[in-house]
Amino acid sequence: MSRTGQELSAAAEARLRAAGVAGAAGDSQILFLHALSKAHGRPVPRHALREHLAKAVSPEVAEIYATMIAAREARQPVSQITGRRAFWKHDFRVTQDTLDPRPETELLVELALSEPFDSVLDLGTGTGAILISLLAERPAARGVGVDLSPAALDVARSNAQMIGVEACFLASDWFASVDGLFELIVSNPPYIALAEMPDLAPEVRDWEPRLALTDEGDGLAAYRALCGGAPAHLKPQGRLMVEIGPTQGADVSKLMLDAGLIEVTVRQDLDGRDRVVSGRKPVPQST
Q1: Which residues bind substrate (predicted)?
Q2: What is the dihedral of CA 111, 122, 95, 205, to 10 degrees?
Q3: What are the C-alpha distances in Å from 115 to residues 38, 110, 112, 142, 191?
C-alpha cells in the first residue's frame, strides 16, 4: 500500500534528525517538493505542498525522494542535491565544484551597489553569484570573473547564460592572467584557517571544494594576494571589497592600508559579525 507524502516526510525527518541534520523538518519538505518536481518534469509550487503531502505517493516519487534523503543523511547540502541555491534576486546552479552562495555574502553585493561602477572584477568567482548579481543590477558594466577551477568556471558561465548576464570568465591564479583596470574588485576568497577546518559542519567540510574554503595556512594568504595586487588593477578611486571571517577585520584592514588603500572600513552582517572590508585606491597626487 502506498504511503502518503506526510508519512514519507515524517519518516525522512526522523532519519535526518538522527543523522544530526539541523533543520530536519524543513529539509525533508524541501526535498519532497523537489522529488515531486523531478518526477513531474516541471516545478511544483510550494503552495501545493500541503495537497501533495496528503496524497498517496507514486513509486517514482518515493524512489526519487529516498535517494535524496539518503544523500542528505550523508550530510550533502540541500543545494547540491537540488542543484540550486537562491542568492540576492536569482536562483543559481551549484555543484560540488563550487562554494554554496550564502545569505551573508549578500552584504557584499549590497555594499558594492551603493556606488556606481562601469567595470567589476570578481576574484574566485565560483558560481558567479556575486558577479552576476552585480551585473544584473548594472547591465552596462563590464564584468570579469576569475577562478582557478575550470569546473567552477563552467558553472559560472551557465549561471550567467541562465540569468541573462554578459560576463567574461577566465582561469587565473588571482591577478596572474587579468588585464586592464576596474572601478570595483570583489572577492569572497578562501579564508578558513587550516586549524579551523575540523570544526566545520560536515556539509561544508566534506562536500564543498576545499580550494574555496582554506588556504591550508592562517586563512590570510588570499587577502595578501588580493591587497597586494589590487592597486595595479584599480582605477583611481576604485574600490576593493572582500568578504572575511568574523575575526579577520583588523588583519585584512591592515593589509589594505599597507597596500596604500584609503577609506578602509569594516562592515558587519545582520548577526553583528565583521563581514566585509573595503578600501579605495587614492587619486594620484599631482606634482
Answers
A1: 188-191
A2: -70
A3: 41, 10, 7, 15, 26
CA 19-24-25 angle, to 5 degrees, is: 150
pLDDT tens-digit series, residues 30-48: 999 999 999 999 988 888 8
Per the annotation, binding residues for substrate are 188-191
> CA 197 → CA 7, 60, 64, 206, distances in Å?
37, 39, 32, 10
CA atoms within 13 A on the CB side of 70: 6
Measured between alpha carbons, how far is 226 from 132 in angstroms, rounded to an integer?
A: 20
Longest dimension (CA), the chain: 86
Distance CA 189, CA 21 (A): 27
> Please, are residues 49 and 33 in contact by the beta-carbon 8 Å criterion?
yes
Break the chain into its structural domains and give their ranges: 5-74, 84-280
Residue 155 CA, distance from chain mean position: 12
| CATH for the stretch 84-280 | 3.40.50.150
36 three-class SS: helix
pLDDT reported for residue 275: 98
Q: What is the pLDDT of residues 122-173, one digit of tens each?
A: 999 999 999 999 999 999 999 999 999 999 999 999 999 999 999 999 999 9
Q: Nine-digit cell at 217?
A: 595556512
Question: pTM for the whole thing?
Answer: 0.91
pLDDT tens for each residue of 97-116: 999 999 999 999 999 999 99
Annotated binding site: 124-128, 147, 174, 188-191
- Give pLDDT, residue 1: 56
Instruction: Give binding residues for S-adenosyl-L-methionine as ranges.
Output: 124-128, 147, 174, 188
164-167 contacts, C-beta under 8 A, 24 or more apart: 164/136, 165/132, 165/135, 165/136, 165/139, 166/135, 166/139, 167/128, 167/131, 167/132, 167/135, 167/143
Placement of cell 594620484 in the chain: 284
